[in-house]
Write a structure and sequence with these properties.
InterPro entries: Acylphosphatase, Acylphosphatase-like_dom, Acylphosphatase-like_dom_sf. It contains 2 helices and 5 strands, in the order βαββαββ. The chain is α+β, with helices and mostly antiparallel strands. The protein has a single domain, classed as Alpha-Beta Plaits (2-Layer Sandwich).
Length: about 100
């Protein structure tokens, strides 16, 4: 990891469960070459951590704001930024 790498922790709210949102995030992140994870939350939001080049993270944030067809994204909250080392991208169990 170098200084051009960015790691963001997100919470996405709206109609984001039961519409393929996690699969959308996983496919988009993989296509962009990002690492991290995504999971549903019991409060009906989706949580994700994505890591990669800053410009690519910006593209991912824009994709998260739009979501897949059938979703309605009301809010993408940046919970935090930090460090970590992820290998690939995974869908995690609901928390």
């Amino acid at each position: 990891m170098n200084e051009a790498t960015r790691t963001v922790h997100l919470r996405i709210e709206g109609r984001v469960q039961g519409v393929g949102y996690r699969a959308f995030v996983e496919m988009r992140a993989t296509a962009l070459g990002l690492s991290g994870w995504v999971r549903n939350r019991r409060d009906r939001s989706v949580e994700a951590v994505v890591q990669g080049p800053t410009a690519t993270i910006d593209d991912m944030l824009e994709a998260c704001r739009k979501g897949p067809p059938g979703s309605r994204v009301d809010r993408v909250e940046l919970i935090g930024e930090g460090v970590g080392c992820f290998d690939g991208f995974e869908v995690r169990p609901t928390a």
